[in-house]
Amino acid sequence: MKICLLTDGFLECTLPLARHLSLSGEDVEVINVSTVQYPNLAFFNLPATPKPKTGFYPEHRLKALMNKNLQEYISPFRFSVYINVPSAKKTVYNFYLACKLARYIKRQQFDVVNLIHGQNMFFIYIFFLLKNVPKVQSLHEVGFHDGIIQPKRKLLFFQLFNSKAQIITHSRKLCAQLLDIVALKKPAKKDDCHMVRFGLAEPNLCYGDDDVQEEFPTVLQFGYISKYKGVEDSVKMFHLLKERIPDLRLIIAGAGKLPFEMKEVEGEERITIINRNLSNDEIVNLNKRCTAVICPYKSASQSGIPMVSFLFNTPVIATDVGAFHEVIDNNVNGMLVPAGDLQALCDAVYKLITEEEFRMQLKRNISHIKNNAEFSWTDIAENTKNVYLRAIFKYRSQHV
Questions:
Q1: Helix (H) or strand (E) run with residue 194 in it
Q2: Which residues 6+ apart lie within 8 Å of 243 measured at CB?
Q3: Tens digits of per-residue pLDDT, 289-320?
Q4: d(CA 156, CA 142)
Q5: Is the backbone peptide bond immediately before 338 cis, with ω within 30 degrees of 0?
Q6: Beta-strand pair 316-319/292-295
Q7: What is the rounded radius of gyration, in angstroms, for the C-alpha atoms of the chain?
């Protein structure tokens, strides 16, 4: 089977899928779409200056950005980066770029194209342009954290309801949300919705320094900073616990607008703020340095944070929102607390830091996830392949 994985930067799950599909004998090409405005993407830090030209990023320059470990990891399949522009600024030009990419995909005569994205307008263009190609949509977002239904979401659901494409979500929570919507619009479409997990973010093993050790007791919150992620609660938690745990350190790392003034943490030597895009090495080293990762989110769909941290046997304390409970088994491989309950967050951090045997048991249990078939990339690749075969079958049955 010749497969195209067209992704919107979800490389921590797309690259392992491509690798394991390829190792099972499939012919796979990954095309990652990035913009000239935000060229830095996971695992491939494209230089921001000068701005890259639109279209396919030069292959020789892309390879030069990879370390040897990553080159070896992606060697079973083809990989490229396609540069577009932000849809809101140059809609017509972006549609032109989508047409060019769609023509390339058609020329390659893929058996199936898997579009992997949140709610990216560029991918909605591509979907319409690939009219006569079997397609699968892998959605990392179904709803919106702010509850606003934007026009592109309506277009996306129009595609899902009226096309023959198969749909993949990566948690039961998102799958249930989607099925609730589908049942109202197109009851027969329910059979085309599938839940397939993504596993540990194993490409991260290509990065980081071998000599980095845990700096006990350090708590880390990392990832892009948004309003719904409750970063301010991490700071409040630290202030409430700093006297009970005299050596406690807090690291907040990621780009985005901080929900507090820097003066609130100025003079606090044990709080570190890294307010920018993180390199791959930094993400890995931060996870190695910390004792626990916290996700005090106010809302969520699903999160890739646990699958990064679990790779390094780092326990995660998260609020019980979205699909966190599907990967974090409370007091088994991590801890769950009610959203907005600052005292519960403090109690969980205190327990994990001060009870060594409990903390070590969490770490031992995390290691078992690697043997869980639901999170095994070999099984995930096989389950995804079955969805591809269904997409091909349904397409051909409609075009006999």
A1: strand 193-195
A2: none
A3: 999 999 999 988 778 899 999 999 999 999 99
A4: 10
A5: no
A6: parallel
A7: 21
